[in-house]
Every structure is written in C-alpha cells, then in structure tokens.
Amino acid sequence: MKVGIAQIRPFLGRVDQNLDKHAQFIEQAKAEQVDMIVFPELSLTGYNLLDLTFDVARVKTDEQIQSLVEMAAGIDIVFGYVEKSSDHLLYNTAVYASDQKIVHTHRKTHLPTYGMFDEGRYFGRGQRVRSFPTKWGRMGMLICEEVWHPATTYLLAQDGVEIFLFLVNSPVRDIRTEQFANQREWRLLTQTNATVYGAYTLFASRVGSEDGATFLGNSHIIAPDGEMACEADIFEEQLLVTEIDLDQIRRARFQMPLIRDENLELTIRELKRIQKRRIEEVDGL
Amino acid sequence: MNWIEEQLSKAPFLRLDSEQTTRLLVTTLREEIEKVGFQRVVIGLSGGIDSALSLYLAVRAFGADRVIAVRMPYRTSSTNSLTDAQIAVEETGVESITIDITPQIDAYFNRFPEASPLRRGNKMARERMTILYDLSAEHRALVVGTSNRTEILLGYGTQFGDAASAVNPIGDLYKTQVRQLASYLGVPQSILDKPPSADLWSDQTDEGELGFRYIDVDILLYHLIDLGLSAQQVKQKGFDPSFVNHVVARIRQNQFKRVMPIILKVGSRTVGTDFRYLRDWGV
C-alpha cells in the first residue's frame, strides 16, 4: 500500500483556497500512485478560527465538502473541517472518503481548552471512537489532543485498528533542545502507540503560522515495530509518500500478542468501580 | 568562556537551541509579513542588542535588500549608539536612513522646559514610533518590533512607543536569551558587550534604572512565569523577598501596556471581547 501525508499550510478561514490546495496535493499524490492521502486536522479551514468557526462550518452535504469527497476516485482521502450538524452544533471533524463517498466521520471527542487552546468555546464534543473497514484493513482516525488521552487509542486498538491516522495541528513551544518539546512528545506518542498495538501510525501534521504560533510539521509514519518508516521536515509544505508493508502488522502481532492478552473484562470492571466511586465521592478523588 | 556563556551556565534552563530558535523565528517572521502582502520591513536601530537581533533575524528572513534600518538619534544620544548601529548596518548591508529627532523634540519641550526625563523619554520613543510608521507607509514595509520578553513583562518600555510594531520576533525571548541568540547570529561584539541602555538621557543604563541585573530578573521571571511558582515559593527557594515583591508588583502594574485599550461594552459583539478574530484572518 502506498500512503501519502499532505503536510500543508492552510489559509485561515478560506475554505475556497484550501480546497484548491487539497486538489493540488491530491493531483500530485495520484500522479505518484498513492492509495490514500491524509491531510491534517482542520485542513480545509485552518486552526485558530475563533469567531470564524461559525463562517467556515459546513454541513456534510455541502457542495464544497462533496466536491472534495468526489476527488476520492482511485485514491482515498482523509481530511478535516468544521462540521455543522443538523441541530446546528459545530464539530472539529475528520472524514474518510473512498470511492467518492464518506465512509467514516469522526468528531473530535477531547477539545483542548487551556493555555493557548480554546476549542471548548466553539466546538461540541464528539461521542464516538470507532474503527472502520477500508480496502487495506481497519483504520481509526484521531484528532490531535485525543491522542493524549490513552483511552482513545486503547479503544481503537480493541476495536481492531491496524492503521492509526492521527490528524494533528501542533504549535511549537520550548526550543531548549534540537527537538522541540512538542516534537519530542509527539514522537513518544506515535512510537508508543505503534509499538504497543502493533499498528501502523500515520502522523499528519500541518505547517505554517497563525498570529505568531508556528505549527511543527514533521509528519511521519511509524511501522508496527515502532521504527520510523519515514518523516517530513519541520515547517515546510511537503507531500510525504511511502510504501508500507501491511504484513508487518501480522509479524508485529505474532511477535508481541499484546492485544490477545488484553483483558477487557478487567478494564471494564475496574473502570465501573472507579466511576461509581467518583459519583459517590462528592469531592472527586 | 565569554560572559554570555557564563550567565547561561548559571541558568541552563534559559539556554535555547540557537539553530532551531533561529530557524523558527526566521520562518515565521517571513510568513507573518509576507502573507499579509508585504515584501519589506522597517526596523528602528538604536545601537542596542535588541534592535540588532531583530535586524539580524530580519536579514536572514528577507535578505538585506528588503530590510530598512532607521537610526533616530536625539542630540543627547550617545555617539557610541550611533556608531554601533552603523557597524550593524555595514555588516548586514541593509539600506539605512538616519533621522535626527532633535528639532521636533526640542520644539515641543520648549513649551515645557521643566518636563521630567520620563516625559522626555516617552515623547522620544513615540516620536520614533511615528517615524517608523510613516516610513512603513512610504516604503510599503511593516514595522518589526524590538521589545524583548523581560522588558514586556516588567513594563520597561513606552506604551505606543518602542512597544509598537506589526510583528515582534523577539518578544518571547528573555534578555539573557536575546544575548545568546545575538551572539550566535554574529551581532558585533561592541553591541553585545555594552551595558543595555534606553539611551533616553546620558549615562542611563537599564540595570541602573531598574535596580537589578537582567540575568537575575530573568531567572526570577522563569520561576514565576514559566514554572508557575508563587511569590511565596520563590522566596522559599532563596530569592530576595524585596526583589520578588518589587518584580511581582511591576508585572501587575504594567499589565495595561500589554493589552489593547479597554472598550466600554455596549453592544453584543464588542471588539476584543466577543468579536474575536486573529490578525491572520483569511491569510
């Protein structure tokens, strides 16, 4: 399977221009015989939208969204946008499009609302974390902050994921070592998840800046054995293309059958106990 | 080991990766200027280390031919400042403009001969700001800022004066980090080594006026702001209590310089409160 990561710099709040950019990258990926191209979080809109969130929100059936879905012919496309639901709620959403249809929609479940992030002010919380079948095996999409909550990757892994798709917008901070702090932390997360779940992990990360905050880039792919398969540079737009060997998933899981040995009963039982205790104890823990 | 390295070895938590920091600042300075339709920048060059660092970063971002350095001396400005600024201009090869602000400053204060150094200093800083913004329009060049993080936090600058700019590449760097990066980028030694001064009156030095050394206040600010320790906690760590109290008070008292003017709310979508957009709206 040949995969591509579109490490793009979206225009803030310009769905029209971003659509053109998506078309260019998809065109290039098709020319390179890419089977699936993954764009970063909110790739159609840019990140720190503030009140622009209302303007860029689109329903699933919107003409612009559908025009992008229609480009998914001979190539599967993963992208992010601000979704408006029928009850007028807004979601930070990732879409998997194949054969000109949306085959899976994921609404971001964990919205960072602290420090420089303000997503909880604008977005509703997604309520589902699910894997879905594709032509190349089961995949699961997670959007940025979600990956920092181990429950999300755990759930996807138990739900059969063979390929993780992480759609990310990561602002650079703390430049006291050659690797930025956020770069180091993300690398830990992608390598850990790939290794403990024996899954390919695709990290699609945007570049460019918004009001002085610089997004990392450094998109990369980790093989199921935890090794780096390939990575893009920081800060520059790039189409990162590589061939991945799906048989590596089988080999990794034969070698370390961690999913087989997972004990869902235990996890659920203990979680229920903890949940009950939290409800009973007014003051939390 | 030079004195900047010595300071950093005492405060290793302030040390930046020079190469990566430069790459970040140069990349994003270029993007933030160019994406709003500008190809050139204008920088007020005092002869001090902050504006020199902004200049050297701008030259890396745009090339010398797209950077305009402006020297704006007053008759009491030190000649060393003017010479140091000239050395930086020559070493970078940028176009430079020199505008003596003495006539307009003196014309104004002839009406107020008793005006305090504070008033005079603020007036000069704002005069320089208006010149930079005028040249900005003339040359279609955005004003690049030269205020560092230490002085922004301490409020050691003039509101709507030297604090004004379109994009400030060094506003998140403590003075100690400005020194590290300036040294890395090859800012002339005479600029690195001289005592920092606002140069608003003769023999003025920042550290003399502030009453403490930059390295000491940077270490304190790091503990208070970056590590999020309370005043009480940093005192327990051994910082001088009166120093801590003084700095904490300065940070609070000067918050007004760090925000846009307060708008009295009347409607339902007030600019800055619930009318919220980035400057980078649409770009």
From TrEMBL, chain A:
UniProt keyword annotation of Hydrolase present: yes
PROSITE patterns found in the cross-reference section: CN_HYDROLASE (PS50263)
Short name of one Pfam family: CN_hydrolase
GO molecular function list: N-carbamoylputrescine amidase activity
CDD domains named among the record's database cross-references: nitrilase_8
Alphabetic keyword roster: Hydrolase
Domain of life: Bacteria
InterPro entries per UniProt: Aliph_Amidase/BUP, C-N_Hydrolase, C-N_Hydrolase_sf
Domain CN hydrolase: from-to ranges: 1-246
BP-aspect Gene Ontology terms: putrescine biosynthetic process from arginine
Entry protein name: Predicted amidohydrolase
Lineage: Bacteria, Bacillati, Bacillota, Bacilli, Bacillales
Automatic annotation (TrEMBL), chain B:
This protein's UniProt keywords: ATP-binding, Ligase, Magnesium, Metal-binding, NAD, Nucleotide-binding
Superkingdom as given in the UniProt entry: Bacteria
Annotated pathway: Cofactor biosynthesis; NAD(+) biosynthesis; NAD(+) from deamido-NAD(+) (ammonia route): step 1/1
Residues at which Mg(2+) binds: 50, 151
InterPro entries to which the protein is assigned, alphabetical: NAD/GMP_synthase, NAD_synthase, NH(3)-dep_NAD(+)_synth, Rossmann-like_a/b/a_fold
GO process annotations (BP): NAD+ biosynthetic process
NAD/GMP synthase domain ranges (all copies): 25-261
EC number: 6.3.1.5
Binding site for ATP: 44-51, 146, 175, 197
Binding residue positions for deamido-NAD(+): 126
Catalytic reaction annotation: deamido-NAD(+) + NH4(+) + ATP = AMP + diphosphate + NAD(+) + H(+)
GO MF terms held by the record: ATP binding; glutaminase activity; metal ion binding; NAD+ synthase (glutamine-hydrolyzing) activity; NAD+ synthase activity
Quaternary context: Homodimer.
Chain's role: Catalyzes the ATP-dependent amidation of deamido-NAD to form NAD. Uses ammonia as a nitrogen source.
Family classification: Belongs to the NAD synthetase family.
The name this protein goes by in its record: NH(3)-dependent NAD(+) synthetase
UniProt organism field: Seinonella peptonophila
